[in-house]
Write a structure and sequence with these properties.
310 residues; 13 helices; single chain; binds calcium ion; binds alpha-D-ribofuranose; eight-stranded mixed sheet; globular; alpha/beta; 19% strand
């Protein structure tokens, strides 16, 4: 069966690193390129982190194209308190020896879309690069079949009482994406906070003799502290892995079609993803599938199997 060509846009951080790993090992998705965006930490770090993670997992040939260093409108925010100042929980990986790409993310994404014709964009950081691609290349929707994101939340929030980090960092970019006409699949906090590694899983991973298992154990300290408060027990959510794993294991997830938009003017609600799932009042276009449930036990088993491979 032909693999689906995917482009992975990350703000590599600790969970992005394992989204990259899942993409490298996917049987149904072909990672044709990647790009970095400002988010968890400054772009100068997310760019290097993505390069070094690809090299660490044995694929320095996968190119990382540099993207946005700031959101479209609002000031930069970061999540160093979760990802560490270097974005990888303080873990220092060997520097990738691959040539550093200078072509900008938005140009590279468009070229990849023109080449592959039915590209799928998987964005697991703020959506600034995707919005810039859409604004510079208005015909992008002819060549991109879906945009699959980790971001948002149908209910609740984490970065704010009603907002999730990736969307809150660049709500204006996110709303450009919601309005672009390309079908959206949203893996928000509703499902990613249910896809956690619990204490038993973390013990299993710590016992692994693999580079991936070691990296997970070494880089997830801060994320575990923050997530455990949120989840209510010792656990860590691997948010960004879900959209990538859905290519090989769609059966793990359930969701609903709905209208989906982003608040770009609120003071308290800026960055809130608003869905019409539970409302008789519907948005004009059902532009998104919002994923709400996951089979956590199976997800954890499959994710750990991937960590055992590298
Ligand atoms: O809210 C979780 C998201 O924010 C993840 O993508 C994590 O990497 C951070 O970017
Ligand atoms: Ca991320």
């Amino acid at each position: 069966m032909n693999k689906t060509p995917i482009w992975l846009d990350t703000d590599t951080g600790v969970d992005d690193a394992f989204a990259i790993l899942a993409a490298l090992w996917s049987e149904n998705a072909q990672l044709v390129g990647s790009s970095s965006v400002v988010g968890n930490v400054a772009h100068s770090k997310t760019f290097v982190n993505a390069r070094n993670v690809l090299s660490y997992f044995g694929h320095p040939e996968i190119k990382v194209y540099p993207g946005a260093e700031a959101p479209l409108v609002i000031p930069v925010q970061d999540a160093a308190f979760i990802h560490g100042n270097n974005g990888l929980g303080g873990v220092v990986l060997p520097e990738s020896t691959a040539d550093k790409e200078t072509v900008k993310a938005w140009d590279a994404i468009y070229q990849a879309a023109r080449t592959h014709k039915d590209l799928e964009i998987v964005a697991v950081g703020p959506l600034t690069n995707i919005a810039l691609t859409l604004m510079k290349y208005p015909d992008l929707d002819r060549y991109v079949r879906r945009i699959v994101i980790m971001g948002g939340s149908a209910e609740g929030g984490a970065w704010t009482p009603c907002g999730e980090f990736n969307i809150c960092v660049d709500p204006h970019a996110a709303e450009v994406v919601m309005n672009c006409g390309i079908p959206i699949v949203m893996f928000g906090l509703d499902v990613t906070l249910k896809a956690y590694m619990d204490e038993t899983d973390m013990r299993d991973i710590a016992a692994m003799e693999t580079a991936a298992g070691k990296l997970f154990t070494d880089c997830m300290g801060l994320a575990t502290i923050v997530n455990s408060k949120r989840i209510g027990k010792k656990a860590v959510a691997v948010h960004d892995v879900l959209p990538v794993l859905s290519y090989d294991h769609p059966e793990l997830f359930t969701g609903v079609m709905c209208g989906l938009h982003v608040e770009t003017r609120g003071s308290i609600t800026l960055g809130r993803t608003v869905t019409d799932i539970w409302s008789e009042c519907k948005f004009p276009r059902q532009n998104a599938q919002v994923i709400l449930q996951v089979d956590r036990e199976r997800f954890a088993r499959i994710f750990k199997d991937i960590l055992l491979r590298v």
